[in-house]
């Protein structure tokens, strides 16, 4: 998985994700889902009486408004399949856009700083443990020397 540049593993075994690549993949997925579900909606709604979806542009607009939960109400589905695609777009669109927004907020506001601090603390803890082992070995050596002097 590391060959895809989605993440790199640091010296502590922590995965550091490449948020730029993940955001780009999310945007591409978002576009593909909008285009695909827009087409399905167009097929389901076109030619149906009283349907405001008259062409593919209307269906695509409906998907964009559904994915962002704006839903102006000017274009809406009247068939069961159209309603299912809009519902699917509500769920998928909010999830994808929310994920991209979270990545953006994380980068802008630096919520990941605690992760960096935790890595620094792990490194310090490793150094302290190594020092403790050295001190322990020296104390054992001193104890054996004292015991030798007592005899």
From TrEMBL:
Pfam families: Ion_trans_2. InterPro entries: K_chnl_dom, VG_K_chnl. Residues 29-108 form the Potassium channel domain. One of its GO terms (biological process) is action potential. The keyword Oxidoreductase does not apply. It is a multi-pass membrane protein. Keywords: Coiled coil, Ion channel, Ion transport, Membrane, Transmembrane, Transmembrane helix, Transport. The keyword Chloroplast does not apply. Residues 111-145 form a coiled coil. Its main location: membrane. The chain crosses the membrane at residues 20-44, 84-109. It is found in: Membrane. One of its GO terms (molecular function) is voltage-gated potassium channel activity. GO terms for cellular component: voltage-gated potassium channel complex. This is Two pore domain potassium channel family protein. It comes from Litorilituus sediminis.
